[in-house]
Amino acid sequence: MPANSDFDRFRAFLEKSCGIQLGTNKEYLVSSRLNRLMEQQGLKTLGELVNRIQSQPYGGLRNQVIDAMTTNETLWFRDSYPFEVLKQRILPELLDGNAGGRLRIWSAACSSGQEPYSLAMAIDEFERSRPGQIRGGVQIVATDLSATVLEQCRQGEYDSLAIARGLSSERLQRYFDSLPGGAWRIRPAVRSRVEFRALNLLDSYALLGKFEVIFCRNVLIYFSAEMKKDILARMHAALKPGGYLFLGASEALNGLPELYQMVQCSPGIVYKAR
Fold first, then answer.
1. How far apart are CA 128 and CA 149, in angstroms?
2. Do the Cβ atoms of 98 and 136 come closer than 8 Å?
3. Rounded to two decimals, what is the model's pTM?
4. Euclidean distance between CA atoms 104 and 33, whole angstroms
5. 152-187, pLDDT tens digit by residue?
6. Closest Cα to residue 200, out of 9, 52, 38, 14?
7. CA–CA separation, 39 and 44 (whole Å)
8. Rounded CA separation 124/95 (Å)
């Protein structure tokens, strides 16, 4: 079987498993992420890898492959403006219409945990600047496909390279404890705000409940237009009326005007659920 046909089979497996669409020019990316795993498994081609997965559809190898292809290191407070918009505009508005109830925020496809922990720090900064305003508390639910990366997220430990990606020295000193060897651990008060759960964005969101805010940033670019539309419609169903959806800086919500209203924030855009 020709090598490009092996790659097509792998692309089909990945899209069916987690929705990610790989371009036809992404063989180098697959090789860089899977070479070590394939060597460990004694596999020489992507065709052999797909055959092995299909013979053990619920086995550990399938999960290892998905982990390798979907786990991306990200930044603290990525793009900065979503977190400022949350603190300066969204939270005050939501709290004005909330009679002491708990606010819920969903960080979808949270990867290595920087986004939900950045949200937890932003909430703490809001509370420090406006004490007593969040009477019912805030729950942050963070989901990802990878059980392995979620377990690492729960530990809240990051090496110096990860810490350097977007975290100010002030926030490092306020919210982290140093560990031997140059690593850092997020303090319990911040970690306790975040609940990590395993979730494939292709599956139902019903068990998550309803949210005032959803962060789904820099992940929809990997899905087909049809699948993206389906995910956004189901996220709308998970938002309370008047809730807000944050997308990535390079992502746009094309269509679905009956579900979302675009709100200009200067800088940035956020989408309000109709």
1. 31
2. yes
3. 0.84
4. 35
5. 999 999 999 899 999 999 999 999 999 999 999 999
6. 14
7. 7
8. 15
